[in-house]
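Late entry, evening session. Most of the bench is empty. Finally got around to the prediction I had been postponing all week. Sequence below, unchanged from the version circulated by S.P.
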Amino acid sequence: MSVLAENIRYLRDQLKLSQQAVADHLSITRGRYAKYEDGASQPPIELLIKISRYYRISIDLMVTIDLKKYPLNDIVNLPDNRIVLPVVVDQSGNNSIEIIPQKASMGYLSGYTDPGYIESLQNISLPFLTNGKYRAFPVEGDSMPPFKDGAYIVGKYIEKTEDLKADKTYIFVTLNDGITYKRFKSRKENTIHVGADNPFYEPYDILLSDVLEIWEYACSISTQEFETENNTQNVKDMFLELRKDIKDLNKKFSEL
């Protein structure tokens, strides 16, 4: 029996529905629906979409993942009917936190909705992080000191942009920038305004339509020591300030 057949039988049983009730909702005969549950035939795409919307489970999960492994109450339903895999715990009951690899972070854009990709990631557990879904993302660049390349930001998944809090930091997964760690400033009708902690980088807007996921800062994992305030740090600050001055001058000249 196919994964789809097993899943639609499981979903119907969980909701305590009869085959006739589901068939009536789909506007097909009970006999036809029964063949889909038995795996004797596969529903056409337009009917598969109806089934997906009826159960509020995305098609990719219905045809690839054994849903019996995941309690339905733990699956996060988003407004656009996309599904995030539920919270998974280890043998001690701690949340399992997937780690996005440093060298493969761009692959996350094509794999974040693929259950197979997410299940293939390495994971860790942090006992003090509970009541939510967490994921660890690599830090790149120098826009958010004191975090350096090689560090990881552990984020807690949030469903809606309305949950964003001013001056808090978040991992934004977007169509244009990929994975970016920034501080939330404000929200407009169609955009959110974010900025870096490094003053060299200017704040900018992100279209809400480009936002794929948002993860609120929960903790960080550093692989290097933080630099103390010494001569090296002073030289770095001077260099960054010089870069900013040059950028401002170039902007003024371009406006002349």
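Two things to note before I forget:
The helical segments are 3-14, 19-26, 30-38, 45-55, 59-64, 108-111, 115-120, 231-255.
Residues 231-255 form the longest helix (25 residues).
Will write this up properly tomorrow.
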